[in-house]
Design goal:
- By secondary structure, the chain is mainly α.
- The chain folds into two domains: 82 residues, Glutaredoxin; 117 residues, Glutathione S-transferase Yfyf (Class Pi), Chain A, domain 2, CATH 1.20.1050.
- The protein has ten helices and four strands, in the order βαβαββαααααααα.
- The chain has a four-stranded mixed beta sheet with strand order 2-1-3-4, covered by helices on one side.
- Strand 1, helix 1 and strand 2 form a beta-alpha-beta unit.
- It is globular and about 45 Å long.
- Keywords: Transferase.
């Protein structure tokens, strides 16, 4: 049986944006084949690749039927919806589905891009300062949410969802590169939640947990 889809991404390291897709696939018992011959940023500029993915971006997936999809959020949603764990991952009613999307939006617009700006250290000081403020404000929002009595996961208390996987994906590189022990101690509920999520076998494998946490932050 062919794999559910072929994933095109860099093979030099685990790209944070593919972690949530790999976890969703594992939870849905779907095989995702990573194209080990893919060479970013060379293959994505070829005529063949651009014919399928005109913007030339990664990650991207292609199914055996020829369905091609790019943009990490769309890919994760598609994979999450394609198996028996769809209700757990995307929500069991309209309210839950809306909340899942709300938290995914926070991860994709406030946490991940601002973390990238901070890590790259190539932007004007004012831009980096604004990114740091937005990044930490988003983490404070998540910390506050997880501090509610009895709160276990982001949306439901009895099971995690794509919201959890997306926030974890957005924190994957910051935890390795800018959130040192002093910063991590400021967000104890997030760290408890992270460790709890990484104890799920399918998630741990997708995120290659345990990761090496940052020792010295460049964000101070």
């Amino acid at each position: 049986m062919p794999p559910f889809a072929t994933l095109y991404t860099t093979t030099k390291f685990l790209h944070a944006k593919v972690t949530k897709t790999l976890a969703a696939a594992a939870l849905n018992h779907l095989e995702i084949k990573v194209d080990t011959d893919f060479n970013y940023p060379v293959t994505n500029k070829t005529t063949e690749y651009l014919a399928k993915f005109p913007h030339g971006k990664i990650p991207a997936i292609e199914t055996p039927s020829g369905f091609c999809l790019s943009e990490a959020g769309a890919i994760a949603h598609y994979v999450a919806e394609s198996g028996p764990a769809r209700d757990q991952l995307l929500g069991r009613n309209p309210e839950e589905r809306a909340l899942v999307q709300m938290w995914i939006s926070l991860a994709d617009t406030d946490i991940f891009p601002n973390g990238i700006i901070i890590m790259q250290s190539k932007y004007p000081a004012e831009t980096e300062c604004m990114a740091k403020d937005s990044f930490l404000r988003a983490l404070e929002r998540v910390e506050q949410h997880l501090s509610q009595e009895g709160k276990v996961w982001i949306v439901r208390n009895d099971e995690f969802s794509l919201a959890d996987l997306s926030i974890a994906a957005s924190l994957y590189w910051p935890l390795e590169r800018i959130l040192d022990e002093e910063y991590r101690n400021e967000f104890p509920k997030i760290m408890d939640w992270w460790n709890r999520l990484m104890r799920v076998d399918e998630v741990a494998q997708a995120y290659q947990a345990p990761i090496q946490f940052c020792h010295v932050s460049s964000m101070r």
